[in-house]
Every structure is written in structure tokens, then in C-alpha cells.
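Supplementary Methods S3. Complex input for the protoporphyrin IX containing FE-bound model.
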Amino acid sequence: MSVAEQSIAGAEARGHGFLASSVGRKIIMALTGIILFGFVTVHMIGNTQAYLGAEPFNHYAEFLKTMVHGAGIWIFRAVLLTAVGLHTWAALSLTLDNRAARRVGYRAQENVASTWASRTMRWSGVILAVFIVYHLMHLTIGNVHPAFDHANPYANFVKGFQVPAAAGFYIVAQFCLGLHMWHGVWSCTQTLGLAHPRYDSLRRSFATGLTILVVGVNISYPIAVLTGFIR
Ligand code: HEM
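Predicted complex, serialized as C-alpha cells:
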């Protein structure tokens, strides 16, 4: 079956509801994107505890595990996993539909700028997915960590980033996060109806400011360990 036939069959299988429409799936992407951006922002702020030393950082990690009698972390994980799943599903199905539509006859009208942006979103999204799996194995499960100790998240953080290859991968992944966030904040505010000449410079400043803040602070962690500022 050709890509176009697959997409038409997929659209028929999806029916005519909210999730079948590309606008519906874009709204799903925007809303789940807001949840994920919210998470990375809060996660970045939480990790600043590392600058205060071992005790505050371990105390914070303990709080995350025990909040709401231990149920909080599982509620939070369920929300995060659902958001990642829906976000990835919407992105994949919209990509397949767009690819099929282009083959059917819009090739001449292809917009170079938006194609570049969406291509960037695809590969930065794939690298981020690989990073998240690695990151969980590195600092939560500990099976790819040189000296993981479940009782000491601060030591895991420091010893983890003392390995230059691991620190380097974190830094590269944060640049992908930056690209993804910048374009994502911009396009999700568009999907949610905020694209208006009056708000465009505000949208651009918000996307740029939030991205620089999250990426800058996140990159500072491996650099602080590699330079011995955090030890
Ligand atoms: C340099 C930047 C980052 C640092 C230093 C960092 C640090 C950490 C640490 C120490 C933990 C383990 C907490 C614990 O189990 O005690 C953790 C968990 C986690 N991180 Fe990060 N993180 C960073 C970036 C990110 C990014 C960009 C994402 C997502 C795109 C992310 C997603 C997660 C998730 C999903 C968890 C697991 C939370 C859970 O226990 O369910 N992190 N991170």
C-alpha cells in the first residue's frame, strides 16, 4: 500500500471525530506540549537544589518520592507518560498525513521554511526520546551509571556528570530540547489561537526567553560538575 493509501485508510479508520481532524490532533499536541514544557521548567528549577549542596538536593528528591503518601510520584508519572504518548502519537499521525498529502499533489506549494521547522521538530523529538530513555536509565534506575546509590541522588548526579561522554550527551540533548521548545512554544500558541500581529513579538519573546532559561540552566549542571564547581 502506498503512503497516500495508508494515510487515507488511516483517516477512514480514525473516523470523523475530534481526534480524526488535523486540528483536533494539533490541539492535543499543543495541550500535551504545555504539560511537557511545564514539567521541564519545574524540573529545571527543582534541580537548582544541586547548587545548594547534597542535603537540600537529597531532601528535595526524598520529597518527590514521598509526596501525597508516596502516591504523588505515581500520579505525576502517569500524567507524564500519557502526555508523552499522546504527543508522540499526534506528531506521528500528522507527519504521515502531511507526507501523503504532499505526494498526492501539494509538492509545488511546499513551504521551505515550515518544512525546515517541522523537520527540525522531528529529529529533535527523536533525539529527545532517546535522551529521556537514557536519562531514566542513568539517574532514576541507575543501570547505566558508574556508581549508582539509590539512597544518595546527589552523589548519583555528581558521579554521573563526571563522565565526560555522559555530560556531553546531556549538553547535546539540551540543545535539541531548546530547538524543540522554541518552535513548540511558538506553534502551540498559534494552534491555541494567539497568532495575531499584536501578540507576535510577545509570543516570540516568551518562546525565546523560556527556551534560553531552561536550556541555559540545564546545561549549567553538567558543566558545573565537569569544572568542579559542584562536587
Ligand atoms: C541537565 C539536565 C537535567 C538534570 C540535571 C536532570 C536530573 C534528574 C535527576 C537527578 C533525576 C532523578 C531524581 C530521583 O530519582 O531522585 C531526574 C529524573 C527525571 N528527569 Fe531529569 N534532569 C535533566 C533534564 C531532564 C529533561 C530535559 C527531561 C525531559 C525532557 C527530564 C526528565 C526526567 C524524568 C521523566 C525523570 C523521572 C522522574 C520520575 O522519577 O518519574 N530530565 N532528572
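The helical segments are 3-14, 22-47, 54-66, 72-106, 112-141, 153-161, 164-191, 197-226. The mean pLDDT is 88.
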